[in-house]
Amino acid sequence: PREYQVTGYQWLRFLFENRFGACLADDMGLGKTLQTIMFLESIIDQVEKVLVVCPVSILLNWKNEISKFSTLDVDIYYGDGRSLDPEKKIILTSYGVMKKESYTTFSDLHFDILIMDEVQHLKNIRSQGATAARNLQSKFRICLTGTPVENDLSEFYNIMDLSIPGIWGDLSLFKSSSSKKSRLIARQTVRPFILRRTKEQVL
After folding, report:
1. For the residues of 81-108, what is the DSSP string, one character each?
2. How many angstroms separate the CA atoms of 149 and 187, rounded?
3. At what angle do helices 32-43 and 3-17 cross, to 10 degrees?
C-alpha cells in the first residue's frame, strides 16, 4: 500500500477505537476499498459482525478485493434463495437488499461495523434507502464516496449523519438557506471525521 493509504487506514483505526464514525471521500481510484479492507483485517478479532452495503455493480469487485488483499472470509447475501451464513463475520449486500430487509432480516442483527460504499446513492435525506440505513444497528459506521460531498449542503449533511448519527444535533441550522457561514460551520463540525485526498495531492 502507498503512504497515503496507510494514513487512511490509521485514521479509520483511530476513529474506530474512539467509536466515532468516518467518511472516507478520496477521489475515485485511490483505493478506498483497499484502505477499508486493511482496516477490517486489523480489527477482525475484535468484532462479531460487519455489514458492507454497496451498489450491485460492485458486489463482486468487493468480494474479489477481499480475497486478493486479505485472509477475510465473506458471505455475499444477494440473489434468489439468499440466506445468511452465521459462521461468517463479514456480510456483503446491495443497497436494494438492504432497503428491502432493513426491517426484517437485518433488524435483529447488531453490527460492530457498517460500511456503505458509494454512499452518494443515499444522498437524499428522506429517501427510503437513507431511512433504511439509519434503521440498521451498528456501533461504528464508515461511509465511502468518491464524489466531493461538500458542494450540496443537504447531501453533505445526510452523508455525515449516516457516518455519525446525531452529529448535527438540531436540524434547524440546515433547514435555513445554505449560506457561506452555515457551510463553514458544517465543514468545521465534521472536519475530524472526513478524509478526502485528490489524485493531484497524492500521485
Report:
1. T----TT-SEEEEEHHHHHHHTTTTTTT
2. 10
3. 50
DSSP 26: P
Q: Residue 58 — left, alpha, or beta (φ > 0 → left; ψ -120 to 50 → alpha)?
A: alpha
Q: In what order do the strands lie in the sheet with 90-94?
A: 74-76, 90-94, 50-54, 110-116, 137-144, 22-24, 194-195
Band of pLDDT at residue 105, cut at 50, 70 and 90: very high
| Separation of alpha carbons 185 and 181, rounded Å | 6
Q: Please name the residue that has the C-alpha cell 456503505.
A: 116
Phi then psi dihedrals of residue 177, to 5 deg: -65, 150
CB 154 within 8 A of CB 174: yes
Please name the residue that has the C-alpha cell 435483529: 108
The enclosing H or E element of 168 equals: none
Residues 65-75: pLDDT tens digits? 999 999 999 99
* 87: Cα within 13 Å, side-chain hemisphere: 2
Q: Give the up-direction half-sphere exposure of residue 68: CA atoms within 13 A in the CB hemisphere.
A: 8
Alpha-carbon span 159 to 141, nearest angstrom: 11
Q: What is the pLDDT of residues 1-11, one digit of tens each?
A: 899 999 999 99
What predicted TM-score, i.e. pTM, was given to this entire model?
Answer: 0.94
- Asked if 58 contacts 145 with a C-beta cutoff of 8 angstroms, the reply is no
